[in-house]
Q: What sequence folds into this?
């Protein structure tokens, strides 16, 4: 499985081309470079025929370090150039230290001439030895580099058609670049066992049909992280693979009717899903399509069976503690355990909340952290709040009101009781509650309806923002101090208080 240590930093170039200009610049090299550019691959090519000075050398060395691939065109006179041999030494070094992928092209020379240093390569090395000395460090390095890189699998062009030969090279590079590990997350806590579960659900050993599965859960629960980790784990088993971060982008035709892995992230409506993964017949046998969404109804209405819907749940306590302590650098910031427990209780196992809150204790005093934790109930973190609010914004007006009523007044009560109260308000609680469950905003559990405390705090903040400084002008009240204050001012006009206020009184009495 991909880990944070395997994720590469962003590099400047896809490909570095190493070549002897007088041999190939006006024919093979120019055609190869043009084709790479047409494919949208950023390619470094040294255009200086007369290379002089340390500045140029350093630029070449840096370009090699900042490339994903190095294509070495071993032509007849390649080894006669000290510049080329120095590039080769650097490429060999980066192959080991920076995971540079090296692809040799034997252009009208036999591979054995390079690795055994015979023929034109033998004559070139003998000439270098006569100038620099047989045992010079430079010559020794060059010989080792030629032997090492010459032993790699590559392409041998002799009498083939150049255009077809170049197309093979470019297609291989394109495919490998597409399969570079995606950036998953800094700390993959609790991910590995979930990937194992999903591997089993995907039935990867069977190629007899196309399987679609869904990853479902609320915002911030880790669906995208899990989808990325799963993609990195299994993508090499497919002819083509694609992780569409923004599914509004068109599905590439080259994936259709092949055995492919397709991950659709952040699916929000049925039209998107139909456009990108409408029917299994679009894809070749053995394909796997993974749909990540906050809305379970999208999955079931698309024909995905309940057995193939994976609910992404909060982290277990020990995983939540591990993730928070990693983010907070607690080995260097010895925060009291009761404060840590307060964070864990607030975050409720949500990875996003743990990571966001984990950044606060760094280089803060315990008093500052204690104050922040105390205020979170009244001033929710904006990043966390906005993540959950996105699900709320997409609801219709009735569903919004049902959600806010449950969050502020009824969470934890029996479903039967809540449905009766909502029905008396002329809502349609049967479909309204079902929609909220499908969108991961409320949870049905043992005949009760409850809510993640982060989502509940988001709902309460929506009501609070109706009138931040005057609770009496808000549509709902749930805090005893606010209720007492408003009641004392409204006592004379109590009979005219709206139905929400009356329900609140009933709720307190209950």
A:
């Amino acid at each position: 499985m991909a880990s944070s240590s395997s994720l590469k930093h962003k590099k400047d170039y896809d490909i570095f081309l190493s070549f002897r200009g007088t041999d190939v610049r006006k024919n093979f090299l120019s055609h190869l470079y043009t084709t790479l550019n047409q494919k949208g691959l950023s390619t470094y090519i040294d255009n200086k025929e007369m290379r002089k000075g340390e500045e140029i050398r350093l630029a070449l060395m840096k370009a090699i370090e900042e490339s994903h691939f190095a294509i070495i065109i071993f032509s007849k006179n390649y080894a006669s150039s000290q510049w080329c041999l120095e590039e080769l030494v650097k490429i060999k070094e980066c192959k080991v230290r920076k995971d540079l992928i090296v692809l040799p092209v034997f252009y009208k020379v036999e591979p054995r001439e390079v690795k055994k240093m015979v023929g034109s390569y033998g004559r070139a090395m003998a000439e270098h030895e006569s100038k620099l000395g047989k045992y010079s460090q430079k010559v020794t390095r060059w010989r080792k580099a030629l032997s090492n890189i010459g032993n790699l699998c590559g392409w041998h062009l002799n009498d083939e058609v150049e255009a077809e030969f170049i197309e093979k090279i470019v297609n291989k590079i394109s495919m490998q670049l597409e399969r570079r590990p995606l950036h998953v997350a800094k700390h993959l806590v609790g991910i590995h066992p979930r990937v194992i579960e999903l591997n089993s659900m995907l039935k990867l050993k069977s190629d007899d049909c196309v399987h679609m599965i869904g990853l479902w859960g609320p915002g911030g629960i880790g669906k995208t992280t899990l989808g990325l980790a799963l993609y990195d784990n299994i993508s090499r088993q497919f002819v083509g693979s694609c992780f569409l971060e923004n599914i509004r982008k068109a599905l590439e035709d080259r994936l259709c009717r092949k055995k492919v892995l397709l991950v659709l992230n952040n699916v929000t409506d049925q039209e998107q899903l139909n456009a990108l993964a409408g029917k299994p017949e679009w894809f070749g046998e053995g394909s796997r399509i993974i749909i990540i969404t906050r809305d379970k109804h999208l999955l079931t209405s698309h024909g995905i069976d309940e057995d193939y819907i994976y609910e992404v749940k909060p982290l277990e306590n020990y995983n939540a503690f591990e993730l928070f302590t990693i983010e907070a650098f607690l080995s260097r910031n010895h925060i009291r355990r009761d404060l840590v427990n307060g964070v864990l209780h607030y975050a409720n196992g949500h990875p996003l909340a743990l990571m966001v809150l984990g950044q606060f204790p760094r280089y803060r005093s315990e008093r500052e952290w204690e104050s922040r934790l105390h205020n979170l109930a009244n001033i929710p973190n904006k990043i966390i709040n906005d993540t959950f609010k996105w699900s709320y914004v997409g609801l219709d007006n009735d569903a919004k009101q049902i959600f806010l009523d449950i969050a502020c007044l009824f969470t934890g009560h029996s479903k039967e009781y809540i449905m009766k109260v909502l029905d008396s308000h002329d809502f349609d609680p049967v479909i309204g509650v079902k929609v909220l469950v499908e969108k991961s905003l409320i949870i049905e559990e043992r005949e009760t309806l409850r809510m993640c405390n982060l989502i509940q705090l988001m709902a309460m903040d929506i009501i609070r923002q109706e009138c931040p400084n005057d609770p009496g002008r808000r549509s709902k009240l749930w805090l005893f101090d606010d209720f007492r204050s408003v009641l004392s001012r409204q006592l004379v006009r109590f009979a005219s208080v709206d139905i929400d206020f009356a329900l609140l009184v009933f709720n307190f009495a209950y």
Q: What stands out?
A: The two ends are 52 Å apart (CA to CA). The domain at 192-311 is CATH 3.40.50.300 (Rossmann fold).
